[in-house]
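Try this one yourself first.
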């Protein structure tokens, strides 16, 4: 059976997941493309439903629903749909202290930056990320796409600044700021929380007040700043450089 109507209740509900309100109400988010879908299957996340185009001829998925090309385009957030759209359950996690180094995202507002940060965090071993409640939604299609599956393999925690700082009590807070110490000369503790602030306003006063250290990335005086995603990536690796010195 091929679903061909955009008015089908399942199709209409799935289309709402492109918006934050729909994701919040259903507890689901969208994943697109064969590669992303297969990587999601390899994670601890639960695929609620998979929609495949009538022209899809790849390996089968469990719980797959075949839809027309027109319906798949309706469900997709991409300009050129890749033939597979999945509904995935958003994991519910209670705020708890980190097991090791972690990230605190303090008002990061750009979806692509959010996805890029999550992607690098997964690569660099920052497995726990704490997001203040004014951050952009990491489960938006743009963020998920930019995370390149990183969102499947990292633990995301959400809360107010007060709630997150209470959970991080006793964990050294390292803030990224242009007035900080040269990060190339800074020796990070074994366990810490790296803070990445808002793209326009930087780190909030509430978080800055409890910071144990502030670090900066040195740059030529012809450049004032770096993109938040780029800065986060550089800092994550530099602050963990000792872990990678023995890697091939």
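Now uncover the answer:
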């Amino acid at each position: 059976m091929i679903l061909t109507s955009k008015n089908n209740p399942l199709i209409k509900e799935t289309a709402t997941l492109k918006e934050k309100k729909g994701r919040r109400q259903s507890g689901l988010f969208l994943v697109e493309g064969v590669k992303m879908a297969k990587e999601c299957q390899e994670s601890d996340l639960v695929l609620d439903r998979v929609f495949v185009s009538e022209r899809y001829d790849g390996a089968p998925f469990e719980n797959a629903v075949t839809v027309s090309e027109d319906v798949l385009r309706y469900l997709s957030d991409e300009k050129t749909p890749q033939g597979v759209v999945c509904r995935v359950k958003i994991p519910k996690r209670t705020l708890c202290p980190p097991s090791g180094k972690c990230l605190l995202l303090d008002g990061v507002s750009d979806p692509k930056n959010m996805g890029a940060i999550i992607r690098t965090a997964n690569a660099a071993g920052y497995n726990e990320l704490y997001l203040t409640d004014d951050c952009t939604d990491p489960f938006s299609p743009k963020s998920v796409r930019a995370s390149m599956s990183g969102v499947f393999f990292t633990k995301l925690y959400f809360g107010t600044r007060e709630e997150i700082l209470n959970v991080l009590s006793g964990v050294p807070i390292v803030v990224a700021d242009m007035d900080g110490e040269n990060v190339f000369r800074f020796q990070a503790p074994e366990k810490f929380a790296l803070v990445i602030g808002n793209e326009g306003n930087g780190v909030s006063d509430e978080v800055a007040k409890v910071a144990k250290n502030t670090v900066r990335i040195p740059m030529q005086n012809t450049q004032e700043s770096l993109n938040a995603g780029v800065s986060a990536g550089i800092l994550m690796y530099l602050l963990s450089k000792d872990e990678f010195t023995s890697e091939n």
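Discussion: Residues 111-124 form the longest helix (14 residues). The two ends are 51 Å apart (CA to CA).
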